[in-house]
């Protein structure tokens, strides 16, 4: 009976997830083009060509920098804002509602907003930079390969930190208050209570939050595509934008499928490393 109840969900997952994954791997063994749309089987030649292309390794490097930058920034800021919102502040309900605004804003809308703010001539950011004498002329935030990645990371971090704030706030509200009061009685200050009581108590939630934000950020598409489309000079190209550009921009579906397959493999490796790091953290907490 149990397998019977599970069967509809298992069939749905297989049809919507596993079959497309298998079809993508199969597609990566063929080459197609706009001129010759009939697929031609080439085996692993597509992968060999990708590995020999320096653009692929630039995409790998950009994806790792993008994911680590966004995840670390949004989780660190989200944690400290959650600590602040967990205090008894005036207007606490309004503050908790306002902090969610960047997150509920659609990704495309947020990217368009920041694209106007980054404009080198009329952007709000450059107006402040020029007013305070931080630069002699407007900075091309999205057109300079040396700073474009930092610019898009900041936008993604700004949009994503409310998610981490909500998760951490929920975890903080479940911390045993008796342990905190006992630490106060023992003479522990705020910093000591933070590292000896609060952080160990929320480690399981923090681990899940880091894992979720890592997967979501690695596969995030909207902000980078609207802001830079992977440019300039592929300085912000990550796997989702590269797959879209190769598949739907150049109609090289076999190569796009190979990029998609490799992105899944790399993400699985990142998650595996993360899970290895997770074990000693949870075992330390249990001890």
From TrEMBL:
Classification from the root reads: Bacteria, Pseudomonadati, Pseudomonadota, Alphaproteobacteria, Hyphomicrobiales
Similarity-based family? Belongs to the binding-protein-dependent transport system permease family.
A Gene Ontology annotation in the biological process aspect, one of them, is: transmembrane transport
* Name under which the protein is recorded: Sugar ABC transporter permease
InterPro entries attached here?
A: ABC_transporter_permease, MetI-like, MetI-like_sf
**Tree of life domain:** Bacteria
According to Swiss-Prot or TrEMBL, what is its membrane topology? Answer: Multi-pass membrane protein
Q: Which keywords has UniProt assigned to this entry? A: Cell membrane, Membrane, Transmembrane, Transmembrane helix, Transport
TM segment ranges = 64-85, 97-118, 138-158, 197-221, 256-277
Determine if Transmembrane is one of this entry's keywords.
Answer: yes
Sorted alphabetically, which Pfam families does this protein's record hold? BPD_transp_1
- Ranges for domain ABC transmembrane type-1 come to 60-277
Q: Where in the cell is it found?
A: Cell membrane
Q: Does the keyword Membrane apply?
A: yes
Any one cellular-component term (Gene Ontology): plasma membrane
